[in-house]
Amino acid sequence: MNQLPIQVLPTWRRAVLKVGSSLLAADGGGLTPRFVTALAAFITASHAAGRQVVLVSSGAVAAGRALLHARAAPGRDLAARQAMAALGQAPMIVLWQSLSARPVAQVLLTHDDLRNRRRYLNARATLQGLLALGALPVVNENDTVAVDELKLGDNDNLAAIVAALVDADLLLIASDVDALYSADPRRDPAATPIARVEAMSPAVLAMAGGSGSAVGTGGMRTKLEAAEKAGAAGIPTVLFNGRDADAVQVLTEGRLRGTLVCAPHGRMQARKYWLLHAPTASGRIRVDGGAARALSRGHASLLPGGIIAADGEFQRGDLVEIVDIDEHRIARGLSQYAAAEVRRLVGRHSREIESLLGYSYGAEVVHRDDLANLPDHLLPGIA
């Protein structure tokens, strides 16, 4: 296989570093500092240079399984995985604290924390407060209370959301592979490493295989999906081998041996980014052709007259998807009215809202300031 060239790392002041389970899990079960010691040294060097790091760390389930002396994978039993995650969070944090001169703070996030605008902003304020205090935040999904259909799914995508949440300049994803390859290097000896991806495309996504580790939940495809989400917020992503001490060392020197996934454009307004990429909406509002055209132009609010139906149950302030009569997704936005209220307002004029409901939260069901269009090339939500 071809040797990866050394390239210059993008300039950064604040980064999110995601560390996969394959770097933390010991061969005989539990956790090991074998590979993450070098990553901890990179974090320390970054702090010394005046930079800030937020860590998104896997490994809790592996740690919990070792405490129970149950080597078998938990399979599809969500309750068992939740129990092991609860048991394993403490030893995972202890491991990182043992490697850090700074205080380590555990931050557990759920699907609802990222869907609810108020909780999203609270999480943002907490993480920024921890960084201001000089702590090392260690973020993970709160598996203990997550339900299967609302799980974020993998820490690659969680890391991308956290990168936007804290206004990071760079997303670093450490795993047990050197880079993105043209094909699976474990199966194709002719596979070549890709040093730089200028823009995500179906061809690039096709290079990704499945999960590369028995203890991980994500593979290269989830990393590319995460890079696309980060790129939508103007944040480039770096993929590198966290088991390669030399690759970690060159990061400290401002260089990269791995894959750089460029951000295709500048920073998206934070609120619009959240609307596009927060986890699954609570419901849908269906609109007629006129409303669909108006919303697609990007400068219109959704008024009651253009609505033909409301699907699912959602409350005032919830994130909803807006679809046209052919079920094509047009936009996402925060509804000013609950689903039951929207159904009563279908097809009506805004001036009728108060007479129909007995009150009014405004003429718009979704205000244009709370609405973001869904370009076809983006991957909204968590895969």
Overview of the structural elements:
The chain is built from 14 helices and 17 strands. The chain has 383 residues and is an alpha/beta fold. It has 2 domains: 7-272, Acetylglutamate kinase-like (Carbamate kinase, 3-Layer(aba) Sandwich); 281-373, Roll (Archaeosine Trna-guanine Transglycosylase, Chain: A, domain 4). Strands 4-5-3-2-6-10-12-9 form an 8-stranded mixed sheet, with helices on both faces. The protein has a 5-stranded mixed sheet with strand order 14-13-15-16-17, with helices on both faces. Helix 2 (36-48) runs parallel beside helix 10 and helix 3 (60-67) packs across helix 4 (78-99). It is globular and about 65 Å long. Residues 211-217 and 377-383 have low confidence and may be disordered.
Could you give a quick summary of the protein structure above?
With 383 residues, the chain is an alpha/beta fold.
Secondary-structure topology with pairs:
Layout (H helix, E strand, L loop, with lengths): L6 E2 L5 E6 L1 H4 L11 H13 L3 E6 L2 H8 L10 H22 L4 E6 L1 H5 L1 H16 L3 E6 L13 H11 L4 E6 L4 E2 L11 E2 L1 E2 L4 H5 L13 H13 L4 E5 L3 H8 L2 E2 L1 E4 L8 H8 L5 E5 L1 H8 L10 E6 L6 E5 L5 E6 L4 H7 L7 H5 L13 E3 L10
Parallel strand pairs: 2-3, 2-6, 3-5, 4-5, 6-10, 9-12, 13-15
Antiparallel strand pairs: 1-11, 7-8, 10-12, 13-14, 15-16, 16-17
Helix pairs in contact: 2-10, 3-4, 7-9
